Amino acid sequence: MFNRAIGFAPYGVYWRTLRRIASYHLFSPKQIKRSETQRRVIANQMVTCLAKQSSSNGGLCYARDLIKTASLNNMMCSVFGKEYELEHEHDEVNELRGLVEEGYDLLGTLNWTDHLPWLSEFDPQGIRSRCFSLVPKVNRFVNRIISDHRDQTRDSPSDFVDVLLSLDGPNKLSDPDMVAVLWEMIFRGTDTVAVLIEWILARMVLHQDIQTTVHNELDQVVGRSRAVEESDVASLTYLTAVIKEVLRLHPPGPLLSWARLAITDTIIDGRRVPAGTTAMVNMWAIAHDPHVWENPLEFEPERFVAKEGDVEFSVLGSDLRLAPFGSGRRVCPGKNLGLTTVTFWIATLLHEFEWLAPSSDDKTVDLSEKLRLSCEMANPLAVKLCCRRSISV
Ligand code: HEM
């Protein structure tokens, strides 16, 4: 099933067709603009939920679950056309979250049978049996959504399922291929965004002076009398630098695509790499390399604040010193959508709240990492929130 999704499909006509369809119907500037309202609605819901959570717990809050559900709701809206209230539990959201979590867990587990193939028939870690159990559940879930869409008649496509169903001729996809592509968008678009937001908030809690500078910028550009709009984001240059610095120190996808292969026998650093070898780029190592970055372990957003006359550093794949969305043919097609979502949501969360350590005696933040498909905080961030603007809960 998964080899029919964009990220797993080998280079060829099928992969190119999928990239073209997704680029036009999901990731184009016009489509990103079209989904602005949905991002604003979800941002407001997040603010209300956080304000409630912190007022009932003496200010203490764990934001991870909320951010993950917000990100999933956002993808469910763009891909499946489904809208859910963040404040309430929904069986369908919980079911899909469980499937995404299980998928992440399976992809992030070191599978001994990849290295010792003779072990595979014993499936010692139970990975194969968990995969066999996950695939029919994903199939059932996504096929149900596809068949609901088939039952409705619409004049023009309003979500990505409609788009895939409307394809004709050589572009037409079979149902199993549609399931693979739809599931991939939900799967990839949810955690990357949520993981990055949690890292940014963690850094803001740890570096209060930098958070103050972001707050000052927000007060200057937006002012406290209104909420942030997406159109404000272009003027938030310091916040943009903060996000780039977090992408450098905590890239959510530290190992780039596993779809790159050596196409000829080659020698790298004196080692022979035969044609056909899977080549994985370690972006985390490049982004922490003292030969590339001054004070690589320090959190210094200023390094990304462009001086007068300088060209702004792009993190979208043209500069290989920092390419957290990859680069070249396999570059992340969702990079602009992902970055737009993260920047707007983070601007809102920081405009509405002060993010503080839960205890005034211990202001450290546990920055331990856990590598699954994304590299996330090993332990959920605990914070104390103070409202910066009056919010009615
Ligand atoms: C902060 C958000 C995100 C980050 C950091 C991120 C990161 C990445 C990275 C590092 C790759 C591999 C690129 C390479 O090897 O050159 C990738 C691929 C991919 N990403 Fe993202 N991503 C994000 C958001 C999204 C979103 C929102 C979607 C879709 C809704 C998405 C869909 C994909 C797909 C389909 C691929 C596979 C592309 C291919 O192999 O042709 N990503 N992403």
Quick synopsis:
The chain is mainly alpha-helical. It contains 13 helices and seven strands.
What secondary-structure arrangement, pairings included, does this model have?
Layout lengths: L12 H13 L3 H6 L1 H21 L3 E3 L1 H17 L10 H18 L3 H4 L11 H25 L8 H7 L8 H32 L1 H14 L15 H13 L16 E3 L2 E3 L9 H5 L47 H18 E4 L12 E3 L3 E3 L4 E6 L6
Antiparallel strand pairs: 1-7, 2-3, 4-7, 5-6
The protein binds protoporphyrin IX containing FE.
Protoporphyrin IX containing FE binds next to helix 9 and helix 13.
Structure description:
The chain is 49% helix and 6% strand. With 393 residues, it is mainly alpha-helical. The strands form 3 sheets. Strands 1-7-4 form a 3-stranded antiparallel β-sheet. A two-stranded antiparallel sheet has the order 2-3. Strands 5-6 form a two-stranded antiparallel ribbon. Helix 3 packs antiparallel against helix 4, helix 7 (127-151) crosses helix 9 (175-206) and helix 9 runs parallel beside helix 13 (335-352). The structure holds protoporphyrin IX containing FE (HEM). InterPro entries: Cyt_P450 (IPR001128), Cyt_P450_CS (IPR017972), Cyt_P450_E_grp-I (IPR002401), Cyt_P450_sf (IPR036396), Cytochrome_P450_78A (IPR051996).
